[in-house]
Amino acid sequence: MNVATALGLTAGVAVAVGLIAWNGVGPVVGLLGTGGIGLLLVPLFHLVPILATTLAWRSLLRARGVRQPIGRLGWYRWLGDSINALLPVAQVGGEVVRGQLLARCGGVAGGTAAASVIVDLTLGLATLVAFVLGGLSLMLGRGDPAAAPLVLGTVLFCLPVAAFYRLQRSGLPLRLARALAARLGGAGWQRLAGGAGTLDHELAALYARPAALARSAGWRLAAWIAGALEMALGLAILGHAIGLGDALIFEAVTQAFRNAGFAIPAALGVQEGGMMVAGALIGVPAELALTLSLVKRMRDLVLGLPALTVWQVQESRRLWRR
Known about the structure:
Elements: H1 3-23, H2 25-35, H3 41-45, H4 47-63, H5 70-86, H6 93-104, H7 110-141, H8 147-170, H9 172-184, H10 187-207, H11 210-237, H12 244-260, H13 270-282, H14 286-321
Helix pairs in contact: 2-14, 4-5, 4-7, 4-11, 5-6, 5-14, 6-7, 7-8, 7-10, 7-11, 7-12, 9-10, 11-12, 12-13, 13-14
């Protein structure tokens, strides 16, 4: 863990603990007691968005003629999400791991696996923008003045997303790799140039399949909507039922904050603050929003710890055999 990550983690923990202390530990604990065993329905329901994002990824792989069992892809997705949620990897380390596993264990060519993950990540960000704007449009329709600055922030978030997409289509990484190989020589640099060329080809091939991109984006949007339903389920279990429109607004604002704090491990503090803001917009009390944030944290632990444990056992066995 580098210094920046450690500082971000420390600050995030301090903010999260401070928010809970400010709003009172007692009410939060009381609400958790109210939910009781029913809160286990939240991690169970979270399997729905995991399945949707898995189907989104599979759509891209099938566009390149890759057939993989849905169970295997689901496991890689589940593990990747668990790594992003629980380890200090700036919420992208899980994408690297699932791409590596697809290539190493799934027998998929490295360039194809990497390209599928990169395009899947790009579509995830693009559909997130669409989902957030959709939620904010509901606020604007109600005449809520708080929507305007949030819309502006979301539009600004489009800039790095567009830059990420443009970088993939520009061929710049390939040109840099070839220039380094030509100048420095050596087998290692030649392999780098060859790998960059393969990746560039696979990215272009995927982006040339609009039907597959549309299917994948559709599954991604379904996953974001399922996330809103998951939050509505959590609030209902805690004794505060909300409608679909409020659920979409709540999840849209929460995701906007969470992704803005991507550099902070697990978005600690950022998620809690974002859920308080989202709750205030639809009439959810601050202590209830904080409790729901803790429910999401517990969901990540319930689903993530078993996945990380199995992964570590598998990796240990692989290294032992080597």
